[in-house]
Batch of 3 targets.
Target 1
Amino acid sequence: MNPFQIRPSSHALRLLLSFLLVPIIPALSSPADTATSLDDAVRQLVERVASIPNLHGPLRLIFLSDSSFSSDTAKEWQATFRNEMAARSLALNDDPNAPLLRVGVSETPTQLVLSASAHVADKDEARFLTFPRASFRAATLPVVPIRVEHQLVYSTSDSILDASSLWNGAETGMALLLVRGAEFSIVRLDSSGQLAQTIPLSAANRSPSRDPRGELNLRPGGGSVLLADKSCDFTWLPNAVPNCHPTKSDWRAPTVLTPSCNPGGWKLLADGADWTTADVLQVVPDAPLRQGSAALLSDFPGPILSVSGEQNPASALVVAKNLQTGNYEVYKITLACGN
């Protein structure tokens, strides 16, 4: 399994990229992995700001935060920043003509990133500090480090619309909803990925559209398939014919994963609906108070067609089309604890 790259959310990424484009960037500092607090981190940032050559007050301060801290916590660290600036005789005011000092705090599930930038003597100056999240006290940062692991588990030239693990009993393997030629089919694979059973959905009495959609929902002994305007119940019994009937399609809600170390939950979202371009999987904190946290992002080799949960609450199956090979691929995505 290979961990996905972890990046800040789009707002934080734009902020950090804007800092990285300045002419002078001192080396990124990584404080020691000892227990600290957010106030301690802010004090270290102020020390870096105070060391900027020719920086003089009064300065106009703007805070840019992309983190899961509560509003009370945000007020506290911003007050600490102001107090530490005053202690170093760097005055602040709200004069729109005063030199601007931008201060940012952003999070990833493994790091806290503090940054500051100012235009001084015809040059842009930036300072950064990064801290491992694990070095902060739990009361300060409630979200533990999380990483994403992924594994390619199946690939085929047939069009896969959805994938689901076989959930019950000792049986293992996977079920797929496929488009073969002009017909929908349900395919059961054994634990080694070999074909075990095929159930044609000719009873659905419809041909796939240009951009077909479908969902598999398994239960003991069989399951159901949801299509654009029909639902078909089926069993794994030999020669059983699916029972299809008209229905209104309410597509699957976003999948939420809950690793053991973080029961607050992480929502899996696809980046867009364009099936002709590469897609991005976003892993976003699900709790409302954590919506500001940075998402985990990862590029896929093509569009993401479906995301479905597994029996393991920390795992899901993601179906994507590989635009380079033309194959349809199923990935197992797992949220694991730790850096």
Target 2
Amino acid sequence: MVTARVIGDKGSRSRAIVLRQGPGKRDASILWVSSRDGILRSCFYGHENALFLSASSRSPTCRHTMALRQALSSSDVSAGTFCSRMRLRADAADVSVCEDDGSTVLWSISYHSVFSLVTFSDANVATCVAPCCRRFRRRCGHVRVARERRGPDGFNDVNFGTTPAAVKAPLHARRRPPPAYDKVIHNEEEYEGLEKLASDTMRFPQDSAPVDLAARPSRNLLPSTVKLGQGAVWNRTADLRQALKPQAAGTAPADRPDHARKVQLILSSMIGAGAIRDTRDALVEHCCGSCGQNREERHKVVAEPGLLTTHHPTAPALKVCRSAWLSWLLVFSSVLDQAT
């Protein structure tokens, strides 16, 4: 979740934009306008020194400044108007603004006309994100301003402290109540009350009762013997197709012209014995998953190509043909007969 918040100090007329793209400290950045109308930023991913750029009208070339310029152009906001409202004075005083976001305390510090974000760990170790403070980001001017604002025992303060005890103390005040959603009739994001809705499937007197269809026996979530046997057949099919496919394609030695015919004989024999599956046959369910009706000759079958992946460690996926039979055609025709 991306959030952008404008922070500032009324006394020194200092404003900046704190941008957050995630929960970590590396996902936060701060943007502001220098006294010479240059859009500057401080973040972990930048390398250009904002202290040097603040003396000119230049702006760093990074994704944050580009995103800000695109936002201004898409919202039809004049860049001159924006810079005049957000411009930082050359003699602006040092500013420290504390922002509490869940269990994270983020400090927005302005030191010598350069904004930066400062965070403190549970052990009271500070980190500054400004590129100009990379070599001494734990004892730079931004950190010193934040420590003066917190005081000698500030990391234990319940308002902006970072120790586990200080974070746990106001946790009940920061915790938001869970949102109250409506029933599924008015809100599709929740399944509460789904079993109370009427079914949209046409039912006939000869069909099974909905209670019997919904009743499910207890299972141990382990595959049955029949499923294990089917899996072994498909694994064997993929293995043999991979092993015999080059010979069947005509790459057999010249002194064995009947090799392809023997391969086809072996495959047909194994298909007849049920050891492997014929991938040319369409895979279609014998019963409807909605009403439980058996498939008959009058049901229309629509074939579609598909890939079947097995548990074989080296054999590739098999090209199969899956089919779906349309039982709703029969239902629709029976309804018309009843209406006439």
Target 3
Amino acid sequence: MRGEVEIWNGDELLFKEPNMIVDGAGELLADIMTVSPSLSGIQNTSTSAILDASNYIIQAISFGTGKDAFNANAHAMDATKEALIPFFVNRLATSGVVPVVTFVSSIENYTLAGDFVIPPKVGLPVAPDPALTVLEPNIAMNAKVGGYFVSSVFPPNGQLTNFMPSSIFSSMVQNTVFSSTTSAVAVASLLGCFPDGSGVLPTGSRYNKFYVRRGSSSEANPYIQAAGVEVVGGFFNAASSMDVSGFVNLVMSSVPRVGYSMSSTASGLCMSANSSFSSNGVIEYSVALASGDVGFANMYGGIYHLGLWTIDMNKSLQSGNRPPFAFTRVNNPRKYKLFCRKGLSKNLGFIEGFNGDLNNTQLSIKWRLRFL
């Protein structure tokens, strides 16, 4: 089995390289070949539904960054950022959004694109390894809120997560040590990493593209707070296609026939194949990232990882979940298994030819797997 990843900016091909199939793909094939067909005779639909083919296909895509990034950029917390939390709370109350603050300790190492901060490299992703089960293993986050480590309640899962929409983080912090509004907003800003859809943002406002530049201690003003440009939202939260853990849901679950109109890639992960599938075995998985999705991911260290995921049937059943596995943003009952991944040596959101007033542009990912 082979595969390749393409990244497009409109009609311009920016990148094309092979992917890496990991052990999870072999485990999935073993599951397919060993699941008992006798389950079809069980009247309990949740049990017989285990045989449904949709349980054994690619179901999600996710994005990650290097290990060191999870303690830098907008993931970091120090006294300067902590002092801004009351401003975060006021911003949420007045505009319904949570500001993102990323720290620049040395401005020479950063690129400012419009009002986005493009972080320097903070460690490349883990080396290719077919035994990987997450995009970036062994992550430890040091950020604290109210004296508690954020990771003690929300352990890192090896990829960029989706805590910023108030509809998500307000539910996630219930009955935790971060249940107060102040703590909840701080946690949302630390965990990030993708913006609300523009349709839910206040009309005419400026959204949460913020950066803080720290100067030397001798400066009268140790930081500069700058608002972003006009409202920029994201596709993932506009379509509710990404859960809190950062998995973007498959929104098309069957191979199109001739004349079948494909779902918009802005609505989530799409799957397609042409009439030659029986002879070439090629299936394409595609998804679009809005400029806001790319720009905000940059605030949290950039995108250096891509992963395709299937449902982990064993873990899902062991946790008490039964098919069909509904997708929800907050309490997603699906457990995933990494099928293949792609590591990048250059940030997906890097802006070529920066001239001082460019913002990130919409990108499209086309990931083809060859099953023959």
